[in-house]
Design a protein that fits this description.
mainly alpha, Heat Shock Protein 90, 2 domains, 3-stranded mixed β-sheet, 5 strands
Length: about 325
Amino acid sequence: MVKKTDKNYYLYQFWGNLLIWGSLTLFAHAVQAEVLNLTKLVFDFLESFVPTIVISHFIIRAYLKTKLAANRSQVKLLHYVTLILSAACLATFFQMLISPVLHDILAMPKYHVEQTLPFQEYGLLGKFFLGLLVNTGVFFFWLIIYLGLTSSRDKKRLAQQLTEQRLTNLMNQINPHFLFNSLNTIRGMIFEDQEKAADLVTQLSSLFRYNLASDSKGVTSLTKELEVCQQYLAIEHIRLGKRLQVDLRVLPATMMMEIPTMSLLTLVENAIKHGIANLKAGGTVVIKSELKKDKVIITVINPYQADLVVSGTQVTASAF
């Protein structure tokens, strides 16, 4: 399967070179005051387009990927200059080599240009030098665009890795916090109903087995997060019984959207611990999701009595 970044690269590579060489070919015909001939236009284009695509991909990009993957700072200006000149020389030589072959394949007549081209008086050497100048400019422009795009991509990737690290750090806080509260729930139930306490241990075991089996990434889908919440709510239903009611108002379009792992569970857990559990009559926890543009907004609502709220472990989350 081709990655999205690779697809974008091939699209940029094709359309970028098409634009550059298409413009240069039309400009050259205009400067030479030639009547546009489709066959010659195709010939001039293929003579330049194909070598540029091949060399920029298999030589320049391959070299840069190797060097930049190790360390961008190791690639000096001299390396870039040498790389561009080497690629330009190879492209020019290749163009001069395949030019007669393309003439024969396309069965093109010999065109006589009235206007003298630069360095034409030097024969093949002049033609090579002119081609070298043009190819050097094209590859230099290609290199600037490529480095700009890869630099932007690397910055986005670094920002994503930083976000995932922050989410992982948050999970490292939440998991012990959740375990601590769950064990306190079981401890309290032991003195009230030992059979229910045993059921709580079974539910908790099932929940943590699911948690360990799930991905350890910083984000997960809302669907998977709801599954974890259902496991936790099953534990709390054993303890609270009819005092705990749950009202799910989850929009189907949001189910596959990504959210920080364990984030919804933390909200639900706090809603029960600081709200429902302190009320004699209990209450309803409302979990709802909505879409705003391309973002999912999740809200957890619970009734509470201010004078009955107990202090927690002060786990906080940064904004993402």
